[in-house]
Each structure stands twice: as C-alpha cells, then as structure tokens.
Amino acid sequence: MIRHVAIIGAGLIGASWAALxxxxxxxxxxxxxxxxxLDGLAPFITDAWADLAQLxxxxxxxxxxxxxxxxxxxxxxxxxxxxxxxxxxxxxxxRQIVAQIETTFAxxxxxxxxxxxxxxxDIQDGATHPGRILVAHPMNPPxxxxxxxxxxxxxxxxxxxxxxxxxxxxxxxVTVVVQKERVGHLANRLTSALYREAVSLVADGVATxxxxxxxxxxxxxxxxxxxxxxxxxxxxxxxxxYRHYLDHLGPTQVARWADQTTPDLxxxxxETLVAGIEAATEGASTEDLARRRDAALVALARLKRxxxx
Amino acid sequence: MIRHVAIIGAGLIGASWAALxxxxxxxxxxxxxxxxxLDGLAPFITDAWADLAQLxxxxxxxxxxxxxxxxxxxxxxxxxxxxxxxxxxxxxxxRQIVAQIETTFAxxxxxxxxxxxxxxxDIQDGATHPGRILVAHPMNPPxxxxxxxxxxxxxxxxxxxxxxxxxxxxxxxVTVVVQKERVGHLANRLTSALYREAVSLVADGVATxxxxxxxxxxxxxxxxxxxxxxxxxxxxxxxxxYRHYLDHLGPTQVARWADQTTPDLxxxxxETLVAGIEAATEGASTEDLARRRDAALVALARLKRxxxx
Lengths: 309, 309
What we know:
The structure is a homodimer. Helix content of chain A is 52%, strand content 12%. In chain A, strand 1 (4-8), helix 1 and strand 2 form a beta-alpha-beta unit. Chain A has helices at 12-23, 35-39, 41-52, 73-77, 91-104, 120-124, 158-170, 187-203, 209-217, 220-224, 229-236, 241-258, 267-281, 286-307, and strands spanning 4-8, 27-31, 67-70, 82-85, 111-113, 133-138, 147-152, 174-178. Chain A has an 8-stranded mixed β-sheet, sandwiched between helices.
C-alpha cells in the first residue's frame, strides 16, 4: 500500500505530481537541491489545488501538513513507500540520484522515473536493486493529464510494473504499459511525429504557425480528445470500418507519408517558428496561456467524465 | 450573398454539408446519380439536426421545404449561388462533374470542391471558367468539425478565395487558407504524420492498437482539442517559451524524428490493425461509435464556446 511518496526534483513535473498526490490523500516528501525550487512548491500547489478541486471532492486548502521538503535525497526517501524521480534528464545525474536513493530507501519499494528521454535500462544500470526501477512517464501537467506510460527496463521485475500500474490506476491515472523501450516511449513519439509535419509545413511555406495550430485545434484535435488515430480511421471507413478504410484509403496515407520529410531545425527555422508563435499568441504571456490551457483541461476532464469517454 | 448552395454528391460529406447549410438558413439542392443516396438524405439530416440543435437556435425539425434533390447536375446548379462539390475523389470524375456544372451555373459564382486528395489546379484544368474553382476541404463530419481548408489552384482568382472565406466564416466555420497546393492540404498531412507513427508502434510491437489510442485520448489529444503543437511546445518551454523549448529540447525532437520510419502497410499489418481495433472496440458497432463521437464533438463545441477557446 503506497501512502507516502518521495518526489525527487521540484521542477514543473515534480511540483505537479506533488499536487496530484496530495489531492489523493497521500503524504508527500519533495527533495530538491535548490531552496528556491522548494520555496516555489507551496504557491504552485495552491494554484493547482483550485483546478484539482473541480475534479475531486477535496479540502478547500492544500493539506500542507502532509507535505515535507528537504534538500537531501537520502532523507527524503527514508520511510517513503515509493519514489517518483523527476530530476534532470541526463543519465549521469539519474544514476547519481538512484545511488543516493538506495542509501536509505527500502529495497522492496519501487523507484519510478518521470524521464521523457531516457531508458529504464540505462537508469537501472549499476543500481544495487535494479529490479524495482522503471519509467512512469506523465504528460505535462501530470495533475491534469491522466496518461502515465509505464516502461520496464531489461532488469525490471515485472511485478514492479504491476505494482506501479495498480498505484497509478488507484489515483485516477490512465496507464499504458509500453512493451519495448524506445526513444520517447509512446506518447512523445506520437507528438513528435505530428510535430515533424507541423514544422515542415511552416518551413515549406504551406501555412503559418498560427494556421497550423488553428487547423489542429478546430479540426482533428477535437476528435483526438476522445479517440486515437486508429479508431478515428475505423470510423472513417463507414459501415465497413477499419478494413474498408485501409483497403480503400490506405493508399492515400501511403502517398502522404511518401510526400513528408524531416525538417532541418536550423537557427533560421527556429527564428521563423519563434516569430510565428509570437504572432499567433498576440502578446499573451506563457503564464496566461498555461492558465487557459489548465482551465480547458479541467473543463474537458469533467466533460469526459460526464460522457464516460 | 450566398443563399442557395448546390451540393454535388450525397455521400457522408455531402449529406453533412447539407445538414449544416440548412441549419444556417440556406436553401440547399443536393444532386446524386443514386436515388438510394438521395433517399438517405432526410434520415441523415434528421439525426444530424438533433446535434445541431444543441449548437444553434434552430427550428425543432429540419426545414425540408428548403431541401431539394435531383439526379441531374445541370438542374441542381441552376439558380444556385455556390456549388459544394462532394463527388468521388478521382480526377476524371471531378472534371466531368465540373463540365456538367458549367452548362447551367453562372460563371461568376464559385465552385468549391470538398476533395481531400486532389488539387484545385488539376480539377480546374480544362474548365471554361477555371478562376472560380477552389478547394474547400472539411473534416469529417463537416457539420460538427468547424475547420475548412481553402486552397487555390494555379488559375484560381484570389477574390474567389476571399468570397469563400467570407461565406464559411459567416456560417461559423474556422477557415485556414493553405498557401501552397500539397498532397493532403494541411490537416490531413498532420493526421497522416501522426498516423504513420501510430501504425509503426503497432507494427514494431511497442504497443497495441488500443493502447496507442488510449495514449492519445488520455494524453496529448486532450491538449490538441484546444491548441496545436506549436503552442503546446511554446508552453513546454516554461517562462522562456518557444525559444527556450527549441534551444533546449529541440534536439530531443530531432532524435525522435531520426528514430521514426515509414511502416509497410502490408496485408499482414492490415490484419494486425483490424484485429487490434476489433479488440479495442469490444464489439461496439461503427454506428454506435460514430454516435458517441458526434455526441462528444457537440459537447466539446459547447465547452469551447463557453471558454472562448
């Protein structure tokens, strides 16, 4: 039974996990070498709490008595039932963090890394108890986007994947167990694939940054909030379903794939993209935009719950 | 002023346009060589009307007195202010349809093709008045997904793009003018890019069809209902915005792009995909799933309107 989670790293992802875990009644210890980062936790959680309160019946104010902070990893892990690791995505740092965790953390408890770009196999390499190390990767912000991708490394004990799945499911997450270790796991491979073409279209002068984004948010993005690409095309096949779609329109997909290329993310292209997003956002601050995004995610979560979707 | 639209083709797209145009107070004439297709219009529109009534203050029943049907293209276009062409996506057929339209349709009025895979330049080739022919491509179903992509052919009069944009905007569509003719225009290039990886992940045994779709619908798809990939990564850069993201995390995108390949959509892979969607949909009929999709799109449209998103 996981009642107390140690979170290593108080960045955006660590802070968001902290808010979520607190809202689910867990005790949370957050560790970060930066006191400034630790000081930012309470304001972040207070903001997130207002959103979380729209999704769950929770206390009016965050239960800060169940939140502990420390700058020492070994201290953070003492007595914790699980570690959610959210340190910098560099393998040498991850291994150092694991070594420090293992000095005090009970060997039968899992260490779940939030890494988006590293592999569990590499992180567990050299660990004293590598079998309990796995990837549990959320999407930003974790307290509002339910997906958690679970990936085992070569040495991961399958029972730890089951334990992790049970834990995240129990706090309302949607878990997917990724069957093979790949760069970007699952969801970020999909977002990268979409992004490749989103950048190419701008690089090739087919559309502006603003128009590419408008096309998604008023077009296919609406469907993707409820169904993935496979189901979308299953319905694109009418009464004949996916087989009819693939037999008749599969070749149009192949033709489009053949026409797509990887853009060169050069300094010039980066300037074009940055200028494009400035034009698209019309002076709105990233803070305001993130607030609007979070409000939209909360409203969508409620809607999906009402629809059972 | 466009008050009367002739729709050529009574398939899914033509029928959906008809429902939308009627709900916006327009007169509609639908032409199809198949009487069966024409007979299916009224039931389709009646179903669609229930959804449209949740988005607009419209009469309780569809105004079938403003809907006309015919099997003859020339008859359909007489007196129409605009043609929405929704015939089969084969260039020889499109050109035949255009030739028949031009026998009775006033030369100063636009012909907008719903084609998803052909180019306006090819459709207008050989037309008597090619300047008024353009692509106005919707996403399925057009009465619930607001995006309309406008694309000019080589011979298209720019004023016709303006006229089309004004028309679709006036009936609540979100228009994007695509700057260059490309296979798949804009939105379907983006969906194809996502789909390429969605298929690859299944082909490579990284995830099941069901898990790929779950990852989208409970992960990045939630954000895409409100913002495109550029804005998403702008916010992924925190306070530093898109430039910070591209400078620091651009290389992780490049690494993922380098790791992605085009799957071979072989008969074996098609079997795997079809079996995967059968497992994912657990016996639900495409009709039921489409009904759930439409209910979700209606609810999302209302939510986005409330949020001003």
